[in-house]
Structure formats: C-alpha cells, structure tokens
Amino acid sequence: DNSIKKSMPFYGKTVMVSAGPTYEAIDPVRFIGNHSSGKMGFAIADEFAKLGADVTLIAGPSTQKANQNLKRIDIISAQDMLNACSSIFDNTDITVMCAAVADYKPKVVSVQKIKKQENNLTLELEKTTDILASLGKNKKPHQILVGFALETNDEENYAKGKLEKKNLDLVILNSLNDKGAGFKSDTNKITIFNKALEKTVFDMKSKTEVAKDICEAILKIIK
Ligand code: CTP
Ligand code: CA
C-alpha cells in the first residue's frame, strides 16, 4: 500500500542505471564487444527498485533478467546507449553508469560481410562519446552522478581522476587485481571515493550485497 511505499528510502526518486557491454558493428555479422555480463548493473537497478525508486535500466546485450518493477530499455551500441541516456537524464535524480561502454568503434561499418583476403586486415577505429562525461557536463546541482572505474594498475589515482574529470559525486573502483572481482563473477570487491576523496573499502561480496552497499552510499549523500 501507499504508506509503505512512501516510507521506502528512494520513494519519489527517479533513477537511471546502465548495465552490460556495448557491441560495435564491424559488418552485418561481426562486432567488437567485451566480457561484461551485466550482473552488477542489473543488481543495482533491482536494488533501487526494491528501495522504492522509479528505475530505468539501460541494458546492453546481456542474458540477465531484471526485476519486474523497472523499465528496461535494450540497446546495442555505445551510440544507442548515449541516445537513450541523454533522452532521459534531465528527468533523473540519480544516475549510475555501470555499463562497460566500448571506447572505440569501427570508423566504417561495412554494409556487406567482409570477405577474407590473402593479407592481414586492419580496422580503423574511432572514439565513442564518453557518456558519463557528457552527463557530467550537463548535470544540475540536485542530480547525483555515479560512475565506475575498472582498473588493473595505479587504481586509486585513475579512479580519483575519473571522479574529477567526469564531474561525479561518487566513483566506484573495481580493481581487476582482486580475485573474485570483475565481469563474469557473481562476487565483486569495490572501493568507493566521494567528492572529498574520502575512501571506503568494502569486502568481497555477492553482487547483490555490493548493490546494497552502493545504494546505501548514495543514500548518505542525498540525505
Ligand atoms: N563510460 C561511459 N562512456 C564511455 C566509456 C566509459 O559512460 N564511452 C563510463 C563507464 O560506464 C564507467 C566510467 O565511464 O562508469 C569509467 O569507465 P572506464 O572504462 O573505467 O574508464 P574510461 O574513462 O573509459 O577510461 P579507460 O578505459 O581508459 O580506463
Ligand atoms: Ca573504457
């Protein structure tokens, strides 16, 4: 009933979460992608929905199933994800960019299947738009923007750099040096930095538990 709903921590908040990989077409049958499973982003979207938020999940290609209580927009490429995120961002209170967006895409998408040649093949790649950075530029003071940083080395400095460069309220560091953390796994280990560069280190947990920690960290800064 409504009084229970109203007592939920994110009641009345509009939340956007991105999840999964993006696929960048090479030709009609091939793409450049990555190993993101979507598990972390889906878990975050589900957790926000459970806590009463009005959630839109922007999902790249993934076999994950989402909670019934959220809107799901399926996209393929980084450009699709940019279009979807940009179209709803102004109406969101909280955005968490969890997707593993491709940094590069083929400059030319062949209309026909590329035939095998005698020689090697070189593909020219061009940069995609950094969606998170573009949302950061357009962010209004009441909006909360959270990004991830997936790193293998010099993790903390890179994560803090992304927080500042992309105008984030929180950055969630995912170090691939932690065993049991990363794309395919059901567990994750994160470290969160806020704008004051205060650091919170979390234990290795299931992605569902990690999603709860992330929602709690966001609740702290909107209170
Ligand atoms: N991101 C994005 N759009 C892109 C690339 C990344 O929105 N084209 C977002 C990711 O969803 C993530 C954050 O930016 O929340 C950081 O992604 P990451 O790949 O760790 O960092 P990059 O800024 O892309 O830098 P690099 O890959 O060189 O470390
Ligand atoms: Ca990247």
UniProtKB/TrEMBL annotation:
Co-factor: note = Binds 1 FMN per subunit.
Task: Specify where the region named Phosphopantothenate--cysteine ligase lies, as residue ranges.
Answer: 15-223
Q: Which reaction is this enzyme known to catalyze?
A: N-[(R)-4-phosphopantothenoyl]-L-cysteine + H(+) = (R)-4'-phosphopantetheine + CO2; (R)-4'-phosphopantothenate + L-cysteine + CTP = N-[(R)-4-phosphopantothenoyl]-L-cysteine + CMP + diphosphate + H(+)
The pathway entry for this protein reads as: Cofactor biosynthesis; coenzyme A biosynthesis; CoA from (R)-pantothenate: step 2/5; Cofactor biosynthesis; coenzyme A biosynthesis; CoA from (R)-pantothenate: step 3/5
Keyword Transcription regulation found: no
Q: Which residues bind CTP?
A: D103, K113, F148, K162, K166
Q: What does this protein do?
A: Catalyzes two sequential steps in the biosynthesis of coenzyme A. In the first step cysteine is conjugated to 4'-phosphopantothenate to form 4-phosphopantothenoylcysteine. In the second step the latter compound is decarboxylated to form 4'-phosphopantotheine. Catalyzes two steps in the biosynthesis of coenzyme A. In the first step cysteine is conjugated to 4'-phosphopantothenate to form 4-phosphopantothenoylcysteine, in the latter compound is decarboxylated to form 4'-phosphopantotheine.
Homology family:
In the C-terminal section; belongs to the PPC synthetase family. In the N-terminal section; belongs to the HFCD (homo-oligomeric flavin containing Cys decarboxylase) superfamily.
Name this protein carries in UniProt? Coenzyme A biosynthesis bifunctional protein CoaBC
The organism's lineage is: Bacteria, Pseudomonadati, Bacteroidota, Sphingobacteriia, Sphingobacteriales
Q: Which gene name belongs to this protein?
A: coaBC
